[in-house]
Design goal:
Length: 421
């Protein structure tokens, strides 16, 4: 894989309108759900991102047909023949584990290579596995593979020890074709799960309760094709909102569902930014100093862990001392060392970062270690004096569609240096 870099000249005031793309984390499970359909599934508003392309590759490797034009994706899974996802594809993207549930429901068998840990934590799959067993699936874990087999799926009563997003999605997709009723308790409540419920129901499934802690699925014998528009990406929208604050700018973010980012809105207002919500757009303006905050990441509707690195970047230049606690992932502070290269003053103790605001950040050579850490450094570079060279921006490409175009249109000074390996 080539690893490109951005060269960003900071301290440009960003101004104007920017449109949020469809949500990557909604599109990925929706693509997996297409496996369950007897017919064609058409998804609109699918962002053109490497994670999405990789998921399309996984589906193609199993024999499905995927057409992806602009932001419309047509999936025909009637030609599906394979049931083993190669390790190489799995390694590219851990979200490919989302095919586990729909594959077992459709084919009664699936093998995936076990996803390893990643830059932010060990990320086990015990909750997915526990839930599938409850539905009658036999799981064997050997040679780094998870082999799942089921003669027939039956409804079950599942209690998740933690409200895992991926486990909730996998179990919903497995249960829609099971015999009888499935209850998922302590389910994750993220908007992406509601979006999945909506597509599944359009396909003929009977799912209720997504968005609450208890999801009830009445199994049906068959599903059909459907068409669906992916919800807007709340993390992308939140990142643009922070860009407005960090550059003393004035940005209107379009195509957002404000209630999906209520913790971001609340924290920005608490720090002194002006946030004006108007239907599906949000205008953020800021002048002067932003005030220090206390933030703790939690499962939805709490403060999203995927916005933690970006907020940490903002708090490095806030007035006073901030305290930021990460409760979802055990190792999600890799951006800290890079931000310190830019002049930030941060101490990490366990899962808590103490951030003492400095007057300004300075451009430096820094490296993106994962997607959201990359977004944090991108924002820091926009606010910093002089130029920043941000390495390994391919991590950012996993989650932000047309980032350069969008930011240039807002007045940012940046260019990409393509590295050929
Ligand atoms: C999804 C998002 C990711 C986001 C995360 C938390 C997608 C494609 N990705 O990831 O961007 O950061 O939600 O909001 O939607 N866990 C277990 N056992 C399990 C499953 C999870 O211990 O079986 C732990 C994880 O290690 C992690 C926590 O639970 O510490 C949350 O993980 P989970 O909600 O499953 O996140 P993902 O679905 O992987």
């Amino acid at each position: 894989m080539t690893m490109d870099r951005y060269v960003i000249t900071g301290k440009q005031r960003l101004e104007g309108r920017v449109r949020t793309s469809g949500a990557k984390n909604a599109a990925l499970p929706l693509m997996a759900a297409a496996i369950l359909a007897g017919g064609q599934v058409i998804l609109n508003g699918v962002p053109r991102l490497t994670d999405i392309i990789n998921m399309a590759e996984v589906l193609k490797s199993l024999g499905c047909k995927v057409e992806f034009l602009k932001n419309e994706m047509k999936l025909d899974t009637s030609t599906l023949t394979g049931y083993t996802v190669q390790e190489e594809l799995m390694r590219k993207m851990r979200a490919s584990n989302l095919i586990l549930g729909p594959m077992i429901a459709r084919c009664g068998k699936v093998n995936i290579s076990k996803p390893g840990g990643c830059a932010i934590g060990t990320r086990p799959m015990d909750q997915h596995i526990k839930g599938l067993k409850e539905l009658g699936v036999t799981i064997r874990e050997k040679h780094g593979y998870i082999e799942a087999r089921a003669e027939k799926l039956r409804g079950g009563d599942i209690y998740l020890d933690i409200p895992s997003v991926g486990a909730t999605e996998n179990l919903m997709m497995a249960a829609v074709l099971a015999e009888g009723t499935t209850i998922i308790r302590n389910a994750a409540r993220e908007p992406e799960i509601v979006d999945l419920q909506n597509l599944l129901n359009k396909m003929g499934a009977k799912v209720r309760g997504a968005g609450t802690h208890v999801i009830r699925i009445d199994g049906v014998s068959k599903l059909h094709g459907a068409e669906h528009i992916v919800i807007p990406d709340r993390i992308e929208a939140g990142t643009h909102m922070l860009a407005a604050v960090m550059t003393g700018g004035d940005i209107t973010v379009e195509n957002v569902v404000p209630e999906h980012i209520s913790p971001v809105i609340a924290k920005l207002r608490q720090g002194g930014a002006e946030v004006i919500v108007n239907g599906d757009s949000i205008r953020v303006r800021h002048k002067g100093k932003f005030k220090a905050l206390e933030i703790k990441t939690l499962a939805y509707p709490g403060f999203p862990t995927d916005m933690q690195p970006q907020f940490l970047a903002l708090l490095t230049i806030a007035e006073g001392t901030s305290i930021l606690t990460e409760t979802i992932f055990e190792n999600r502070f890799q951006h800290v060392a890079e931000l310190m290269r830019m002049g930030a003053n941060i101490t990490v103790e366990g899962r808590t970062a103490i951030i003492r605001g400095v007057p300004t950040l300075e451009g430096a050579f820094v490296e993106a270690t994962d997607l959201r850490a990359g977004a944090a450094l991108f924002l820091a570079a926009l606010a910093a004096e002089e130029a920043t060279v941000l390495e390994k921006v391919n991590h950012i490409d996993r989650g932000y569609e047309n980032l350069e175009e969008k930011y240039r249109a807002l007045g940012a000074k940046l260019h990409r240096v393509v590295k050929h390996s």
